[in-house]
């Protein structure tokens, strides 16, 4: 919400008074004086007027998790452990996953309570590269490189996947970079060649690489730089 609206929504100020407070440089957001009426106030922002705290701001939380195979990318599941079960954190119900992985896929998973941040990361327009290490049942040939670069037609959605980069690592292993996150996308791309994916591991999302110190099932909080790198338009926390 814009800061002028935030202020004028308070019972003590009308719109004109709210504007005046900003002009008089009496309003601070996260410790910085704000005079631009368009400045965005979020649930995480601390807003002060002179010495008075108008909103304390709830803590924004961001984690990277090394998802092991055999756990569900969901907040609840009747049968299997979920990625949230791996977190030893308070108020887990407040957290959500930014970009799911299949049950048997391992690797980098981002978890947060900041919907604005996770939407930015996952919306198709952002086109953040997601890099996967892939092992397959059959050999991977050079034809795959061209086909993935040109796009694979998905009849169910009636669309062609965006150009993807494939690097061959061995006869049956490769690194694939895609900028979308369609349902079972990697498996379906290899499925075009009737080649079954037998191991799938997400190494990175945009600038964020899975921390090699994290064993499967372990997680850590993201640093402020990492949070910012993923969403440069976001005001620093
Ligand atoms: N593509 C898939 O097929 N599965 C995943 O888990 C992620 C990408």
From TrEMBL:
Keywords: Isomerase, RNA-binding. One of its GO terms (biological process) is enzyme-directed rRNA pseudouridine synthesis. PROSITE patterns: PSI_RSU (PS01149), S4 (PS50889). Residues 1-58 form the RNA-binding S4 domain. One of its GO terms (cellular component) is cytosol. It catalyses: uridine(516) in 16S rRNA = pseudouridine(516) in 16S rRNA. Its EC number is 5.4.99.-. One of its GO terms (molecular function) is 16S rRNA pseudouridine(516) synthase activity. InterPro entries: PsdUridine_s_RsuA/RluB/E/F_cat, PsdUridine_synth_cat_dom_sf, PsdUridine_synth_RsuA/RluA, PsdUridine_synth_RsuA/RluB/E/F, PsdUridine_synth_RsuA/RluB_CS, RsuA_PseudoU_synthase, S4_RNA-bd, S4_RNA-bd_sf. Coiled coil: none annotated. Belongs to the pseudouridine synthase RsuA family. Responsible for synthesis of pseudouridine from uracil-516 in 16S ribosomal RNA. This is Pseudouridine synthase. It comes from Pseudomonas helleri.
